[in-house]
Amino acid sequence: MNDRVLLITGASRGLGEATARRAAAAGFRLALLSRDREALLPLVAEFGEDRTLALAVDVTDWESLSSAVETVKETFGRLDAVFANAGQSVVVSFFGDGGADPEQWRDMVLTNVYGTALTARATLPSLAESKGHLVLTGSVAGRYHRPGNLYSATKWAVTGLAGSIREEAIGTGVRVTVVQPGLVDTSMIPEDSKSKPKLEPDDIARAVLYALEQPPSVDVNEIVVRPTGQLR
Which residues of 140-156 are buried (b: 16+ CB within 10 A; e: fewer)? Predict the structure, then answer.
């Protein structure tokens, strides 16, 4: 059985939950992180308490996150891969034509950018020890300019972050992948997009596992996955 340890942030639903299922089936031991630990408990029951650790973590809180990584190391003895997936989306209008109140923008920016950066900082020393793999959730929204879209800007940041980490990681054996999904059928999908072609969370989970299952000599830098029929 594969004894590699995979840590997933934002693991209680959507892409994180789907990836946890795929990874468990592939034999990974799992450290599942979410703000809501109770939401993780059904996954622990499904995968087995001996192979699954559930932790309540806010990825924007350095002490909470770094402590969780130490708990993972103490529990499993190692950390081989990380899926930095925690994120959120709110509708924005810079002209004030509807959308979320600007105070709500802060949580999205902090989670998507600062939280992803903190996840990298908290886990990369351990990944260097195991010559492991960091996977980040980007978005095709982070490849194009989109009107009134702060979420898109946060995903541009994740794309840049992945490239920066990859260059700093040269010589360590650590691999870095940014997965950039198109429209996915999750709770984050905008109301006006529900009738458009969509991916399922499991489609992205398969992409994550594809990257993780490559040999150490192969570093899959970017994976762009759109539903058939999505232009951008």
Answer: bbbbeeeeebbbbbbbb
